[in-house]
Design a protein that fits this description.
Elements: H1 2-27, H2 30-41, H3 44-69, H4 75-91, H5 97-106, H6 113-141, H7 148-167, H8 169-186, H9 189-214, H10 222-234, H11 247-257, H12 263-291, H13 296-303
Helix pairs in contact: 1-7, 1-11, 3-4, 3-6, 3-9, 4-5, 4-12, 5-6, 6-8, 6-9, 6-10, 8-9, 9-10, 9-12, 10-11, 11-12
Membrane topology: Multi-pass membrane protein
EC number: 2.3.2.3
Subcellular location: Cell membrane
Amino acid sequence: MQRVKRYVFWGGRLVVGICFIWLTYLVFDLSYILSQVKQLFGNFWLVTTMTCFYLAAFIIRAKAWQLYVGKQISVKVFVDGVMYSLFINHLLPIKVGDIVRTGYLAQSEKVTWKTALQSVVVMRLLDLMVLGLIAIIGVLYLGLSLSYYFLIMLVIGGGLLLGLLLLKEKWRNVLINHARQILSILFAAKGMIIFTLIILSWCLEALVIFAVTTEFSLSLSYLQSLWINSFTIAGQVFHFSPGGIGTYESFMSFALAAYRVPIKEAYTIAVITHGFKFIFSFVVGIYLILSVPISWSTIKHWLKRKED
């Protein structure tokens, strides 16, 4: 079964990697990308606004996490944990930021490792629920034109994920148990607040894409940008490189193409948006290393933990 899981994951990563190489071969134009970067970063107030909204998205996500845990722990611990997760995921080729996020909370000694991990899993599932709802709304109400490129990515991604869940019984059981818990949360007053905060955080993050597209004089609406962001983030399950390089660009390019954005512009928008997020994550990472450092040996210890 472990071998099947590896085949499914690496099969998906291989397909996405080939798509990225193909896209890069077709439309990569360094001079065009640099000219667009210069135009974007020449607008100081736009970049500042993008940064503030992107930062606010993570702070709100951290607040939702704090409300879920329900312990007398400073919100700063949750913000730092979320930011460490972002930084590590952009630093390493494997997506282990959530384990670091778990360990960072657990080291506060006010919650156990198991409780911290469970809270991170639930928050991730709530993220996926929100992203899924946005994706459905996008298809039904935004007049989405399902282009050939988009259908390829949708069928491949959905098929591989479904196959993985069907083949992995343990994963199915865990997913069902957490789904029950999430439903119980959503029907509570605090749960509705948490869910609303998560929706708000993704709405703020989508403003980064919306701001970048305005520099290309495109007619994309904010709601379309929200859908594109959700589809792109959902595709990061096939993360195979630091920060999801290749995966992010492929999924966003195809999502933009679904709204009839020319593929060269779609690719460039994806590269610039992802580049902005890389810069943000490394600036945050430097701040964390200087203010609340974690030794590499501690991180390796967290990665070896077997509880699930």
